[in-house]
Design goal:
The chain has two domains: 55 residues, Multidrug-efflux Transporter Regulator, Chain: A, Domain 2 (Orthogonal Bundle), CATH 1.10.1660.10; 127 residues, no CATH class. The termini are far apart. The chain contains 14 helices and three strands. Helix 3 crosses helix 5 and helix 9 packs across helix 14. With 253 residues, the protein is mainly alpha-helical.
């Protein structure tokens, strides 16, 4: 069984123009072309399109998506990695939804707001003890002051940047690319730049030796601590991040 380009556009919530563009750049070829010039897509093509749309949802550009698809030909394995990320996002969003619903009910009903329940899924201080133990109270105080001094839009933008970085790591790890590949190293560079923008960290101080040790140490911590590893799809994904950061640190810091 196959589907026409119009059917696929309707089912997938995209456009025929987009599908034709994917064909033109070699990202998604139709299974066959009819005598009338219409493109038709098989079940395998639909699986490929689902992967493309998932990766687009992770914020990856089309050239990177093409590389990801080439590097991981096993669709079931790749989709399993995507599914893990989606489940994590589902859990995070479910906790945020529950927190906001509780606040709405309390505000409407004039009830007592439970502060400890309001920010489930939002907490930025959950690693306070780890930060102070590893890098000192001054490091945490600077970072906390920086965060509290930001406006709502600035915080939202920073959270989006952080989330996008995590999503790109998960996508890269799921694709099976090498930690020293150009794609992985580009994300590693962004990761270090992201760390550099957080006041109080060795990365922000700009001392090359400290930054190198800090980056490689964080990579090890991502793997060792499940709370951090979950941000990268679990231990395997965190291991990929660690290895890529180590390569970047050795070559650039």
């Amino acid at each position: 069984m196959d589907w026409s380009i119009q059917d696929i556009a309707r089912i997938a919530g995209t456009t025929s123009r987009t599908l034709r563009h994917y064909d033109d750049i070699g990202l998604l070829k139709p299974s066959r072309t009819g005598h009338n010039g219409y493109r038709y897509y098989s079940q395998a093509a639909l699986v490929q399109l689902q992967r493309i749309l998932l990766l687009r949802g992770l914020g990856l550009g089309l050239p990177v998506i093409s590389q990801v698809l080439d590097d991981e030909a096993d669709a079931a394995k790749a989709l399993t990695g995507h599914l893990e990320w989606l489940k994590q996002e589902q859990d995070r969003l479910a906790r945020q939804i529950a927190s906001v619903m509780q606040t709405i009910e309390a505000v409407k009903g004039g009830g007592e707001i439970m502060a400890e329940d309001m920010f489930n899924g939002f907490d930025h201080t959950q690693y306070k003890d780890e930060v102070e133990e590893r890098w000192g109270k001054d490091a945490y105080a600077k970072g906390d002051s920086w965060w509290r001094g930001m406006g709502a839009d600035e915080k939202a933008a920073w959270k989006q940047r952080s989330q996008q970085l995590g999503e790109d790591w998960i996508a890269a790890a799921s694709a099976g690319i090498a930690p020293d590949s150009a794609e992985a190293q580009a994300i590693a560079k962004r990761h270090v730049e992201w760390l550099t923008g957080i006041p109080g960290t060795p990365a922000a101080d700009g001392k090359s030796g400290d930054v190198k040790a800090y980056v490689t140490g964080l990579g090890e911590m991502y793997v060792a601590d499940p709370r951090f590893a979950k941000n990268y799809g679990g231990a395997e994904g965190a291991g990929f991040v660690r290895d890529a950061l180590k390569v970047y640190a050795e070559q650039n810091l």
